[in-house]
Amino acid sequence: xxxxxxxxxxxxxxxxxxxxxxxxxxxxxxxxxxxxxxxxxxxxxxxxxxxxxxxxxxxxxxxxxxxxxxxxxxxxxxxxxxxxxxxxxxxxxxxxxxxxxxxxxxxxxxxxxxxxxxxxxxxxxxxxxxxxxxxxxxxxxxxxxxxxxxxxxxxxxxxxxxxxxxxxxxxxxxxxxxxxxxxxxxxxxxxxxxxxxxxxxxxxxxxxxxxxxxxxxxxxxxxxxxxxxxxxxxxxxxxxxxxxxxxxxxxxxxxxxxxxxxxxxxxxxxxxxxxxxxx
Length: 279
Hints:
single chain; disordered N terminus; 279 residues
């Protein structure tokens, strides 16, 4: 059962009047939010999070490592620096933005926003620390409480080294599980959207088509079946490793994903996907 937290908007609106009015007044005009736009490896952009928001993205991805008690953001261990924490790059700015916007990442009508957190190693320890950190941001995240889901401005989903048993054992958590499309226990009626609201997979593991030539009809049917099964179970769908070099192949893949109703289209090219989804 899902309870929509209208109270969140009311409370955050009060905070916004107190601490966020100046930020709202000076903010740039909002771009149109794009529900299918997912920023893969968002932290590699010049302005993590903010570049994606300026292009209307509603889902961003951050890879994390637990290092000396800190959740550091980066793709590889050699990329990590002490100042690039999950809090400084994502949690703090999201919290401030939601306060300033009266309870939503984007001003105006509330729009669902996803923070996909990819734990690179040591899943149990990293998630345990993440769970502690997230509790410092009251009313920012969608919450699971004893079988109920309370919607918040940001839904955090855990990917990568996911500690499934630990997460499933929690009666209270502020994060959800990124399932795998190829796993029948994750996709569809065999799963539970209160635990696994998102299912993802490597495009090349499930499909041979790379955007060149005709999309085989059997593969198109399979794509649409996956989306249909997921949506009936209350789950969203994402693929990674789709072609991302500008050109006809990427255009063809994105067109099929959009037509099939795939919820998150994966890219590193923020401007390119914004232009495509704005047509």
